């Protein structure tokens, strides 16, 4: 009632405008500056206009908020600070609210959005903060909304929907950004000046979303490309490795087959020779000190029956030896055992890296070969470091001596005939 309005006004005056000359001996409706009332008999304060009256300080709750019949509140161009009173929603009849040009700060209070009859609101030129809430949509009668010159921030609600809105201004709120909502058509650019807004009457928004998306896509594309390229390179490398490996295996298998076939046909046993010939001295004097040849626990292995006059590794190492010739795969020595017999041709293989079982199989296969032109393979020695093949010595001289002028008798002929066919490749 009016008494309540009176108390509210006096409380407001006490807070922000003690200098106001309001005669308390009369009703507020009887000449209080800026106060207007509804007609009798149910008089109420319906208007409070204190424009540029040097009001300062904060408006407490229980003052303006208690003017429940107030339809117009205009406090423009004062120096009122602090928040808009949280109970402003109590002014349920409020239609015109003008607070421009003060120092109101903080967020627009929640109760403000219950002022369903509001038609014009001017909160400009204050220090209000916070976002422009979509709660404004509750103010269905709002035709004017001036928020310019505050510290509002964030994007405008895209679904801002105020059917009666004709005037809207959020300019000079530097932190308001994003697009001008499509729901606010036909507004001039001046409504949005001094903000970070775009689109609508302002410059078009950079298509940041799609650009970011594009660059994300590009990055993703580059990554996928790199992965595919790496896979292709890997596959190529693997294929090359497999190709090389299988070629080597095929070549090795081919050489074995070819050699076996050649031997059987009495021609050059290339692979067998390759695998089984070569390497340096047998004689102790030729062996470096600590040679694995000596005392490594390995034994000479005889192919077939043991010789009439048995010999072992020790005997062989004691034998007098001379180099017969050096081949690609090692060196062959003539070794005469103690007592002058037997005379052996010993090949010390070089760079033969076969497991013992395979080595033995090959030697056994080689030893099983029978041909007039093949010297008999009698024994072998295998250790990790040393591999020896022990042949019968064929005392026919060498092809070299034949070629370079030695006598040409039947013995030489047979040996000469043998050498080129077995080792012809090197000859
Ligand atoms: N059983 C043998 N009896 C007599 N002399 C031999 C015997 N075996 C090899 N020689 C002589 O030793 C020389 C060298 O033989 P070796 O087998 O090391 O030659 P190579 O076939 O050229 O060797 P490689 O196959 O390692 O290239 C031969 O040219 C030959 O004069």
Automatic annotation (TrEMBL):
Pfam family, one: PK_Tyr_Ser-Thr
SUPFAM superfamilies membership: L domain-like, Protein kinase-like (PK-like)
Topological type in the membrane: Single-pass membrane protein
Xref: PROSITE patterns: PROTEIN_KINASE_ATP (PS00107), PROTEIN_KINASE_DOM (PS50011)
Residues that, per the record, bind ATP: 347
Spans traversing the lipid bilayer: 218-245
InterPro entries: At_inactive_RLKs (IPR050994), Kinase-like_dom_sf (IPR011009), Leu-rich_rpt (IPR001611), LRR_dom_sf (IPR032675), LRR_N_plant-typ (IPR013210), Prot_kinase_dom (IPR000719), Protein_kinase_ATP_BS (IPR017441), Ser-Thr/Tyr_kinase_cat_dom (IPR001245)
Annotated Protein kinase domain residues: 318-427
Keywords (A to Z) from UniProt: ATP-binding, Cell membrane, Glycoprotein, Leucine-rich repeat, Membrane, Nucleotide-binding, Repeat, Signal, Transmembrane, Transmembrane helix
Sections of the chain in a coiled coil: none
Compartments where located: Cell membrane
GO MF annotation list: ATP binding; protein kinase activity
UniProt GO cellular component terms: plasma membrane
Protein name (Swiss-Prot/TrEMBL): Protein kinase domain-containing protein
Native organism: Triticum turgidum subsp. durum
